[in-house]
């Protein structure tokens, strides 16, 4: 089995080392795990691609390449520059340091990498580790992902829904902000929505008087609707969310046709 891994926290991130372990456990001793990951952190870039500029790449070791680009760029580089002798069977992106539950999924570079894999016709999974007070005191804040990731990814690979339509299904896994021993179980769940948590900006000034804006995230431990990803994560459950890149609001198509056409 051949697996391509990437992330958005950068090629030296601790979560990518956890993902390497997960991928190696699935690929087995005769398989291959290839890393093509951003040279620098790319959090929050979503499904961005470097369409208007070239990307510098560097081979750091066997099956290990750094790209000055986004996670989606890394998937493209992996498919069309690195793995030229054959496509991977699976693409894994993560393990992100922080949750990609609820609306965070829309900004996530981690899921942007998985989405690009799906658009390229390859099964893909994004993995994220929710952080919080109960992980900050752990020697390994990725303990839940490290303990439960290998078996869950294998189960999803073997029993998940892998279609071949124009907008293939890909998956988002969020591990809860608890130690591995305290994980309550795994639940398949839709995206939630944090009604009182938004990205905002905060202005600062440089010594020369120039104005800069920092983007600030909102509270991450705000409960979402019962049974949705972030709510389940805060209850100690791993959430698995099937996703598609199709952004059409199918639920309003018929009503809009009646109103407009």
Automatic annotation (TrEMBL):
Binds 1 divalent metal cation per subunit. Residues 3-194 form the Survival protein SurE-like phosphatase/nucleotidase domain. It is an enzyme of class 3 (hydrolase). Its cofactor is a divalent metal cation. It catalyses: a ribonucleoside 5'-phosphate + H2O = a ribonucleoside + phosphate. A divalent metal cation binds at residues 8-9, 43, 96. SUPFAM superfamilies: SurE-like (SSF64167). It is found in: Cytoplasm. NCBIfam families: PRK00346.1-4 (NF001490), PRK13931.1 (NF010541), surE (TIGR00087). Nucleotidase that shows phosphatase activity on nucleoside 5'-monophosphates. This is 5'-nucleotidase SurE. It comes from Thioclava litoralis. The gene is surE.
């Amino acid at each position: 089995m051949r697996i391509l891994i990437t992330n958005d926290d950068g090629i030296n991130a601790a979560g990518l080392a956890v993902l390497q372990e997960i991928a190696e456990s699935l690929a087995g001793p005769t398989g291959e795990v290839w890393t093509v990951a951003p040279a620098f952190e790319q959090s929050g870039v979503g499904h961005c691609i470097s369409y208007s500029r070239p990307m510098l790449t560097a081979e750091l070791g066997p099956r290990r390449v750094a790209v000055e680009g986004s996670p989606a760029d890394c998937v493209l580089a992996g498919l069309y520059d690195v793995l030229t002798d054959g496509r991977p069977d699976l693409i894994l992106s993560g393990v992100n340091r922080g949750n990609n539950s609820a609306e965070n999924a829309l900004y996530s570079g981690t899921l942007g990498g998985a989405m690009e894999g799906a658009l390229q016709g390859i099964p893909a999974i994004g993995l994220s580790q929710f952080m919080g007070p109960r992980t900050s005191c752990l020697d390994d804040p990725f303990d839940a992902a490290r303990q439960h990731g290998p078996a869950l990814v294998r189960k999803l690979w073997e029993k998940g829904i892998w279609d071949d339509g124009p907008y293939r299904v890909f998956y988002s896994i969020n591990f809860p902000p608890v130690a591995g021993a305290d994980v309550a179980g795994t639940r398949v769940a839709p995206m939630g929505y944090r009604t009182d948590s938004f990205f905002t900006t905060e202005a600062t000034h440089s010594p020369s008087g120039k104005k800069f804006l920092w983007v600030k995230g909102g509270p991450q431990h705000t409960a979402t609707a019962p049974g949705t990803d972030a709510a389940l994560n805060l209850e100690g459950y791993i959430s698995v969310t099937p996703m598609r890149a199709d952004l059409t609001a199918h639920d309003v198509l018929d009503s809009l046709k009646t109103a407009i056409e």
